[in-house]
């Protein structure tokens, strides 16, 4: 039983539903970010999103974990994680200026592959030959989507890949956090660090916000916070091996939103590469779970 009195896997169907809705919410968050990048710097979008979301995040943490959810035993770890969070979000929002929503989303799904490699190289985790094979297939999928040297290649395609790498480091850095802290503590401090660090940099790129865009900044904060909250709760209600692969449903939403808003349509090679990346990621999740057991 966890700190909030919920036994993992006690409500697997509720976890599945929350994960699916949470992923859909984050996809809407990304679509709004892509819209805003036409007029604003990714740093300004990131800053305003976190500033608006912070009070809501604090209220959620208090309701789910009480006052202890706001206490940190290792603030420095959260600061480092905040830097990684800002970097990953900035890289991904920047990629949305140049890439289709589905293409950018497909490429960040290579994160589990990076997590496997980094955990083996720096944390000395034992990785079997099957997971190393999945790593190779994951990078093959990236090459198919990016197509370096091809006529359609653009450097911006490397931004989501860099996002996945930084995100992988962020996920592994959770080991630095004191085990007495809950997931709600991590959520609060990530949002707070994003607001703080963004506030230090945003004056360099700030432009006045149009009145008609205020609702978009409000919406991106709502959908982003709701998505992260629901996905966090999903992992508390159902086994990770069940809900983690559902993260890949984001590609469906990204494709749908990209087509509805910008009439984007990924080509066959992008679909092939995305399928390989997703298969590699799902296999990695299941093998990691098996190894842990």
Which helices and strands appear, and what pairs or packs with what?
Layout: H1 12-36, H2 42-65, H3 75-95, H4 101-108, H5 111-122, H6 129-146, H7 158-172, H8 183-201, H9 214-237, H10 240-243, H11 250-262, H12 268-292
Strand content: under 5%
Average pLDDT confidence is: 88
Number of DSSP helical runs? 12
Structural class: mainly alpha
Walk me through this protein's architecture:
The protein is mostly helical and 293 residues long. It has one domain. It contains 12 helices and no strands. The radius of gyration is 19 Å and the shape is globular. It starts with 11 loop residues before the first helix and ends with a helix.
Jot down its keywords.
single chain; 293 residues; mainly alpha; 12 helices
Short description:
With 293 residues, this protein is mainly alpha-helical.
